[in-house]
Amino acid sequence: MTLMGCAGADGRAAATARLQATPDQWDAALPAVLTAGSSAAPHLIAGLETTPEAPGAQAATFALGRVGDVAAVPLLAARLNRAEDHAYEAAIALGRLGEAAALEPLRAAATDRSQTPRVRAAAACSLLDLGDVGTAMPLLQAVLLLGTPHDRQLAAQHGFVRQDRWALERWLAIEAIARNSGGERFGLDPDAPWPQLRDGVARWVEFVRSR
Question: How many CB atoms lie within 10 A of CB 165?
């Protein structure tokens, strides 16, 4: 078998194992996919298309963000419309691909008021990673300030479903901000009191506008 044939076989085997893995096996199945790299991507795509409810479908979606390319965008965009855990992984994966083709489906997910806050936050973070600051910034500002005295106004303005805890969504936003600001977090913390969140958001906005 040629080297290319070996790589293809390794990619197929790694993708199949990832798709068939149960949640307790997901971590163990990832290294083989990463080793196979891009040769695993077409098999992950094909597997998700033919068996979208496979035990490892969520894990395979995550893996596509690590080894996929523009060919994965249509599948990942379609998975934005699935259950929350799958849509969340698709939103994150689309941002990791670094492809301009991912912008429109991510914009649709980030601004879709029927989506869950977690999926919308993940989509907004991916938009920030892809350079769409104009769409991402107001949504991430809202995510960081929901649950504070600004809650009712922001929920109405952006159509977010109100909830008791925003720590996960805030963490996503802060990590995305740090990735795109040279590691700076502007004093933001998921569990910070609201004045600290307000001041951190203001510092981030000023930083972005001064660039």
Answer: 10
